[in-house]
Specification:
UDP-glycosyltransferase, 13 strands, Rossmann fold, alpha/beta, 4 domains, seven-stranded parallel beta sheet, 600 residues, six-stranded parallel beta sheet, transmembrane helix
Length: 600
């Protein structure tokens, strides 16, 4: 369709002196987007007939070239219609979405998934603590309804940097805390009257909705709602695959021999890495199991939770280690990117375009309040920024003391612009994909959770370097900025990574639509789920089979031992009996020559 669009636009633009030529091209292009191909062929002929009718005889001869070109376009369209398979039939579905995590980046990812579905024509009812924030419908009709949960879910944003660096970075704190937070979030959501009504009126809920979309952060508590009302379920994971949740989500655990844990920030290359990574895997599984075991039982989690038909993961192979996954895990990393977001605000655009040396974008995301950084670290950043010619867009809350002249601060910046030359980030996955998509090098300060591993992936790609936030010095920071700006290898590798990131058979939006409708068409698509979900942990690890093999081996070895012992006893008794008899000497006389011959 895109090629035909440009083809028709060329036809219209090539005849600027013809009456209605531009209008004809516009009508044809619009009709292509809202009509089937066969209908378009007839419609286009009609438009051209009207065009020729209003032309003078002298102009009609000159329009013959247009007819030839249009005929070629019609043949192209008709040929495609005859050879290309028609898109799968779909029925507009009613989808229930429950976001239990009150984090902006979590909602941005889910809202992008929902936007793809509403653009396709599906109806969505979404429980969210960020109502009207980047609404999935934005101009797409009334097929989207929000239920505001901000009154019961406290938004996680603007945490003090000291707490993030001291608590969130510790594995012993973050894993049990994530499980505890998830349960608290679910408690708040399940206490809402609207959700209780969905649970109580399960039959009506099943008749009203076709699918449930939710996020598993550290607990699968919303999956009990899907099980209670009998709805197929789709998980959206706003981070790379959650390794400590992976066995319960898809039935398989990643291999710690080569796949780094989500919370292990280094590549797995040597023995010490495999040892540490395996310890993190075991610790994460054990801590989550214990946290779930000791959690207070809620009325909603009686019975087994439903398992997802499809899992949409905010990942891509350029930032995710290669691992074995079942077919119902779909990578849609970068779905939140809006490449058609229009012009930048005037003040930001002027600030960027009037910087001859380029611009640096600096943010630590929505969770950490940049203004809460220790004063000596803020001063380090400011002093270095004063020494460089580039301008800086710095996401900073409130007023900044002693702000450098080349710095613009704000709570949020749309910054997609070719003059942005460097991205200073904490390594959140959404920002990582923005940098990858734009082909911009990254200077990273990983803080917690998946951020060290995200930045390690960019370092492996040769487009990033990382530093420790609490120990940063002016000399280190300045050297890092100059290295990334002036060493063209980083930009070259960033552009290579961007090319790989964009080279995929479907856009993330198309993948979401296809696989969601696949689940709807195939009644939950249970055949995509791994049979490993039905196994216990010892069955999955083949401990029962190994036990049988070991017991069988030991039993066989025991029987062999008993047999040797028995025959040894017989032989010993026989020799003793010979020794005690008068025939013993005769036996020796007979045996001795035979033994001598054997020796010779």
């Amino acid at each position: 369709n895109v090629s035909v669009h440009h083809y028709i636009r060329y036809i219209a633009a090539s005849l600027p002196r013809f009456p209605c030529a531009e209008d004809c091209g516009a009508i044809i292009v619009k009709s292509l987007s809202r009509r089937t191909r066969s209908q378009y062929i007839n419609h286009c002929d009609g438009v051209l007939s009207d065009l020729i009718a209003v032309m003078s005889p002298n102009h009609r001869r000159r329009v013959l070239d247009v007819l030839v070109l249009c005929s070629a376009a019609m043949a192209l369209i008709a040929g495609r219609a005859a050879t290309s398979p028609s898109p799968p039939h779909f029925r507009a579905a009613n989808i229930l979405a429950v976001e239990t995590v009150p984090g902006r980046s979590h909602w941005n990812f889910m809202s992008a998934v929902l936007r793809a579905l509403t653009d396709r024509g599906h109806s969505v009812v979404a429980f969210t603590s960020y109502p009207s924030q980047q609404s999935p419908t934005s101009g797409h009709g009334g097929n989207y309804t929000e239920v505001d949960t901000s009154a019961v879910l406290r938004r996680h944003a603007g945490e003090r940097a000291s707490r993030v660096l001291s608590d969130y970075s510790r594995l012993s704190y973050i894993v049990p805390s994530v499980v505890r937070w998830s349960r608290e979030f679910c408690d708040a959501v399940y206490d809402m009257e609207q959700v209780r009504a969905l649970m109580v009126n399960g039959t009506d809920t099943a008749a009203r909705f076709d699918l449930l979309v939710t996020e598993p952060l550290g607990s699968e508590c919303v999956a009990h709602l899907a099980a209670a009302v009998g709805l197929p379920m789709v998980y959206v994971v706003p981070t790379p695959m959650i390794t400590y949740m992976q066995p319960s989500i898809v039935g398989h655990s990643a291999n710690p021999a080569y796949v780094p844990h989500l919370l292990y920030g280094s590549a797995v290359r040597a023995f010490r890495h495999r040892l540490a990574n395996t310890a993190v895997y075991a610790y994460g599984r054990l801590v989550r199991w214990y946290a779930e075991l000791t959690a207070r039982r809620r009325p909603y989690d009686v019975g087994a939770p439903a398992k997802p038909s499809v899992v949409f993961v905010n990942s891509h192979h350029v930032t995710e280690p290669t691992m074995l996954l079942p077919p119902n895990v779909v990578h849609v990393g970068g779905i939140h990117l809006d490449r058609a977001n229009g012009a930048l605000p005037t003040n930001i655009q002027e600030f960027i375009e009037n910087s001859p040396h380029g611009v640096i974008y600096f943010t630590f995301g929505s969770v950490v309040a940049m203004s809460s950084l220790p004063d000596h670290i803020q001063d380090t950043f400011k002093n270095v920024f004063r020494q460089i010619p580039q301008r800086i867009l710095w996401k900073f809350e409130g007023e900044m003391k002693d702000k450098p002249n080349n710095v613009m601060t704000g709570n949020w910046f749309p910054q997609l612009h070719p003059n942005v030359k460097l991205f200073i980030s904490h390594g959140g996955i959404s920002g990582v994909y923005e940098a990858v998509d734009a082909g911009v090098p990254v200077l990273g300060f990983p803080l917690y959770y998946d951020q060290p591993r995200n930045l390690q992936s960019l370092m492996d790609a040769g487009m990033a370097i990382t530093m420790e936030l609490l120990s940063i010095t002016e000399q280190q920071f300045l050297h890092g900025i100059k290295e990334l700006l002036h060493n063209k290898n980083y930009t070259k590798n960033a552009l290579i990574t961007a090319e790989r990131f964009k080279d995929r058979p479907m856009t993330p939006q198309e993948s979401v639509v296809y696989w969601t409708e696949y689940v709807l068409r195939h009644k939950g698509a249970h055949h995509l789920k791994s049979e490993a979900l039905n196994l216990t942990w010892y069955q999955y690890m083949l401990l029962d089979v190994i036990f049988v093999f070991v017991v069988s081996f030991l039993a066989i070895m025991y029987l062999i031992y008993k047999m040797f012992k028995y025959f040894y006893s017989l032989a010993t008794n026989y020799l003793i009996s010979l020794h005690s008899s008068e025939n013993f000497n005769t036996f020796i006389e007979i045996v001795t020559p035979v033994l001598d011959d054997l020796v010779d």
